[in-house]
Amino acid sequence: MDTFDRISELLRKNKMTQADLARKTGISTGLISQWKNRSQNPSAEKLQKVAECFNVSVDYLLGNEQKEKPLVNNDEELTAYLEELKTRPEMKMLFNLAKGATKEDVEKAVKIVEAFLKKD
Q1: Which residue has the higher pLDDT, 68 or 2?
Q2: How many structural domains are present in the chain?
Q3: Could you tell me if 54 and 81 lie in one domain?
Q4: pLDDT in tens, 29-44
């Protein structure tokens, strides 16, 4: 399995397209297509961006490490958020809606929710 095979597998697992990867990393779709066609190899800088996007190591992408990097979680606040997502379907629904949103979209949504909560 080569580097782009691993990237493709991560795209599939994360239900992302090459365009999604391009948006999240700032890498052009054309360059990602060149990787797919094996006409160009990703630079170390681009591999780092892809690795950060998927929370894996560059070594994993290069095939030097067999397993994906485990999610290390020592942050109590993050643990609380994860528990909310796990136990409250409505929170999971909000999170899923927000995944593709821009920072500005999220800020607008927060203002709407805050205004709604102040009415009650």
Answers
A1: 2
A2: 2
A3: no
A4: 999 999 999 999 999 9
Give percent of the chain above pLDDT 70: 91
On whether both 10 and 42 belong to a single domain, the answer is yes
Whether residue 27 lies inside any domain: the answer is yes
Sign of the four-CA dihedral 100, 27, 5, 70: negative
Token digits for 107?
């800020």
The residue range of the domain holding 39 is 3-62
Contacts of 55 (CB under 8 A, 6+ apart): 68, 69, 71
Gyration radius from the chain CA atoms: 18
Return the sign of the alpha-carbon dihedral for residues 31, 35, 38, 40: positive
Instruction: Taking residues 2-17, report their average pLDDT.
Output: 93
Supply the pTM of this predicted model. Answer: 0.56
- Alpha-carbon distance of 45 to 32, in angstroms, equals 13
